[in-house]
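Working notes for the structural subgroup meeting. M.R. asked for a predicted model of this chain before we commit to crystallization trials. I am recording the input and output together here so anyone reviewing the notebook later can reproduce the run.

Input as submitted:
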Amino acid sequence: LTPCISFNLTEKKGFSPVVKRLKAAKILTRAKTRTRARPFFLCFTQVPLTTMNQPTSPDSGDALSRFTTYLLAGDRQGCRAITEELLKSGMPVPALYQELFQHALYRVGELWEQNRISVAREHIATSIVESLLAITYPLICNAHPTGKRVVVACTPTELHQLGARMVADILEMNGWDSRFLGTTTAAVGLIHTLKEVHPQLLCLSLSTQMAFSDLLATIRQVQGQFPDLPIAVGGQAFRWGGVEQLEAFAGVHYVSSLNRLEELIKS
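Returned structure, recorded in token form:
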């Protein structure tokens, strides 16, 4: 018979996604050792999607619950309708980004971490929210220019850019000229852009702890050539710690929210 080793990701409560993957990797290594040359299956069990705590219908609950339900269902039009409804009611763009988009995506991310939805569903949710950012652009582009420039980028191995895009939008709404470089920004290209743009601020986004060493390396390389350039750092990765590692760098500010970002640029 072919051995089968089971690893239940859902039961690993309290661990970050990185720790879960490391534990899975250790199990895989032990499995290879025990089974030697024999074939085996490594099974990752999951909780059925029907067990999730969700509103019973898209029409029940508050805007966040309804939005999250539509998001998990891949319903772009439902998400768009709620977004437009909140903007028409007077919700500020930073609040929309943080209280609706960010919270809903954090919930989607948690479900993926618990192996309760597929990575494909998580990607669909992210793409829907990214498309909804365009609805806010008429409000963002009307800001009075301050003459200040900012470069917003992700670390070299960072594959998630949505949080960084939100940061660039909020800065643009506050009158800054935002240069958004997107995902997987190599340090060489970043430094080249800094030399061209001469910004007053650099923002770096990090969504996974796996790329933390890249973030620290990028900060060192940037400060090696631009020692007086303020750097703002934030992202979902810091939900599991790491802020203390930034204390070794002068001029590096941890930004825990979009509200904190606005406080930083106005201080």
